Amino acid sequence: QVCAQLCRRPCYCPWVPPRCPRGSPLVLDGCGCCKICARRLGEPCDFLHVCDQSQGLVCDYSSAPAGTGGTCNFEDDEEGCEVNGRLYRDGEVFQPSCKVQCHCLDGGFNCVPLCREDVRLPTPDCPYPRRVEIPGKCCPEWICAAQDQHLPRDARAAPGAVSPLLRYPCPEWGTEWSACSATCGLGFATRVSNQNRFCRLETQRRLCTARPCPALPAALPVSE
């Protein structure tokens, strides 16, 4: 009866398929007629607007009032994570970029950097090491610069804060870490500090997660 009410034959579909957001593939609707964007985790769904089965999602009507649509959820009721439009199961380890590895856990995720944050001190054969981005490689690497560059002119003495390349102490100066760039999910915090071997002011970044991103609103009633 549902198919007879909602599915029309022959099919009448738009000439141009819809443009789907990242992580939402084109699939056939519930009538097997027209191509639509598969619904993602937490999005509303019904008989026509199907969930992304490739991500293990089904339309969950358990918490929906009778006669209304459901919400896309994992078939085994496991919690998952959505990052940059992609869905990950609870416990799954993934890499949103080559520099970061994340772990989906209890609806949120934790990430750790994959690039080494080591410090290379000056040596006789490399007096001015510098870390640069190398084309074709993910993580920056150390190179030996030809000469040192602009040292701060206003550095004043501070006991116990001598840089390996400076003949005078370097007073510690820096700002507090900023708020996370993303209100939910993975973001970056920044600060300005001179705590480096050249006693230069530089912008530093670190990964942060304020909180997991909330699920999308519940489904609206389906109009017949």
Automatic annotation (TrEMBL):
CC terms in the record's Gene Ontology section: extracellular matrix; extracellular space; nucleus
Domain VWFC, first and last residues per copy: 79-145
Predominant location category: secreted
Keywords: Cell adhesion, Disulfide bond, Secreted, Signal
Location(s), subcellular: Secreted
Membership in a protein family: Belongs to the CCN family.
The protein's name in its UniProt record: CCN family member 5
Native organism: Prunella fulvescens
Lineage: Eukaryota, Metazoa, Chordata, Craniata, Vertebrata
